Amino acid sequence: MRRMMLALLLVTAEPAVAAAPVPTVQFLAPPAGARHYTISSEAGKHGDVWSWTTSAGAAAYRMSLSLRGWITEIDEVMTIGSDGRARAIAIRGYTDQGDATEQFAVGLDGIARWKTTIDSGTAPFGNRHYNSYGGPLLAAEHDIGALVAAGDKGIDLLPTGHASIVIGSPQHIDGPWGAKILKLAFIRGYGFAPSPVWLDQDNRLFGNAGIISLLPEGFEQAGPKLKAIQDDAIAAMVRDVAHGFLNRENRTATLIDHVLMFDSVAGRYVPDRAVLIADGTVVAVGAAGTIPAPAGATRIDGRGKTLLPGLWDSHQHVGDDWNLLQNVATGITNYRSPGSMIDEAASIYKRRATGDLLAPDGKVSVIIDRKDPLAAQGALTVSSAAEAIAAVGKIKAAGLWGVKFYTSMNPAWIAPAAAEAHRLGLHVHGHVPAGMRPLDAVRAGYDEVTHINFIMMQAMPQEVVDKANTAARLEGPARYGKDVDLDAPAMTRFYAELADRHTIIDPTLTVWEPLMTSDGSAISPEYAAFAEIAPAAVARSWKISGYPLSAGLTRDDYRKSFAKMVGLVGRLHRAGVPIVAGTDGYGLELVRELELYQQAGLSNAAALQTATIIPARMTGMDDRTGSIAAGKTADIILVDGDVSKDLGNLRHVRTVFLDGYRLDGAALRQASGLTGMPK
To answer: CA 648 to CA 679: how far, in whole Å?
Structure first.
């Protein structure tokens, strides 16, 4: 199904990123009377989708979206056959990941042919349905119709895959023309987990609800209610999964013996160790063969394996229950969310504490942004310094950990709001507001800067800095980054001041690598190891054509700029600036983030510290997590292979210890939508 749908409706992360200038397209103009849907959040309206029938009887769609300055403009014409299946599709325009051009057609010979910016192919059409790579979100209504008609047997997809739908009981909501009967349905086959969608009383697509919602014009206010209903339904699903793992049998004592252990505090690997876990904590650490196992303990032979503190993702926007489960499956036992909604954070903490949610443990910040069309969705929006200070107080009152300022904030509000946050004991971090350079933000009170592109802003032309709340925050570094002298005196002074102030940097290199280096010929390294064990539709979505090139630049230019971003991380580390590893994605990208740090010049152990002890210290959780030591919480992972020789072995999770529960890696992967061990 339209690959953008779930990513859009759940997004709190930086990209999906938007289009740079592309060749002019004369887009279809919606006629009077066209069906009109809006894309909105509590921050306001972000876009529109229209649908109508052409004079030739085809289904036509037009979508226009501006999300925090990222622009999507696409249209689509779809010819429907007598059996209700699409026989021809033509998509034009540009999206968050490049050129959206796509063609699909079924010939008189019964052969389906398709071509996108990332793949092309032919296959007998048979009884299958083409799964578009992109296109306007509302065009998914034809996929929904096919799924409903197919019932329990589901539908086979082109290029590959199978999907099905389960429809729930009716729900009543209020709309502009009175009460409306809707049904919550869940679709399987397009993502890692069952995907929620709302149908009308006739089982036709009504819309999607989330942090961002796609709903008929006039029903925008129903979005939060629909989201709450589906959140409760998802919570019931994941509760059953959690109870299957968090049981007494998985809480018994465990002795791992003869294992290579990573000492994150010392930054070294220690061979032939033994670790005893019982009652949720690490009881003893010692030389192999020296720790006796209690009666009834599970013994694990650690030879050929590595034992490490559970990994941290320091840029994981928590809120998706299924994704939290997948984080655990991939060895992430802790997170720092740089922007979640207060109610969602409270729900996660509560359900995790009661054993109803299988999830990492962590700390949460809330985004504050200026009320503006470019404001971050899910943010507390403010119109003055006083309101910003009040928003800081609201975050503290909710018991959360930090404040994240965003790119549309008035620079003059940062210092007073940051001072209030520090007075209340909150961490201050964020994007760098338009008009400020990173050093300005740090001097105004930032403890941490998120995203390496905002660090690169220190060397950008003023016209880029002034528009950092638009796509310029990527396009500027993509254009000019390749020419930045990372060793210039001004830059070395910059690194030194960051180090002197103990400013933390959260680079998220894996956000930028696929966008700046991909050309559609291969899946980016972030996801390559997971391609064969992910749902086919997900794996296909990981292959992108890259961020649209600015005038006069080549893909190699963008790659050179990305290489400078990688080099910038190395300079920061050598200067003594603390680095924390984060993905701003699924979490699957975390190991690649560490591999890129190695490319930047960090040692294997130093790279691994950015995902263990350093974020534990940043969040004040190092007294119980981030390292393996007697008395600490047993948040630990056991992986196949020698991580000291290859960080890629971190993907080969054999066992996860979460709060002392011994969880089988294979079972976790299966529950989270992964069908096997990553490469």
So the answer is: 9
- What does the mean pLDDT of the chain come to? 94
* Angle CA 573–492–513, to nearest 5: 50
Residues paired with residue 364 on neighbouring β-strands, in sequence order: 337
N-term to C-term CA, the chain: 26
Please, which residues bridge with residue 140 across strands?
A: none
Residue 509 pLDDT more than 50?
yes
Q: Both tokens of residue 346?
A: 């409270």
Structure tokens at 111: 């052969």
- The answer to whether 673 and 587 are in contact (CB under 8 A) is no
Separation CA 647–CA 643 (nearest Å): 5
Is the pTM above the cut of 0.90? yes
Alpha carbon distances (Å) from 621 to 6, 220, 406, 505: 32, 40, 25, 18
For every residue of 333-344, DSSP letters joined together read EEEEESS--HHH
**pLDDT single digits (tens) 34-88:** 999 999 988 789 999 999 999 999 999 999 998 877 789 999 999 999 999 999 9
Q: In angstroms, rounded to a whole number, what is the distance separating the alpha carbons of residues 94 and 21?
A: 9
When pLDDT is cut at 50, 70 and 90, the band that residue 223 belongs to is: very high
Cβ neighbors of 676 (< 8 A, separation 6 or more) are 532, 533, 666, 669
What is the full DSSP assignment across 428-444? EEEPPPTT--HHHHHHH
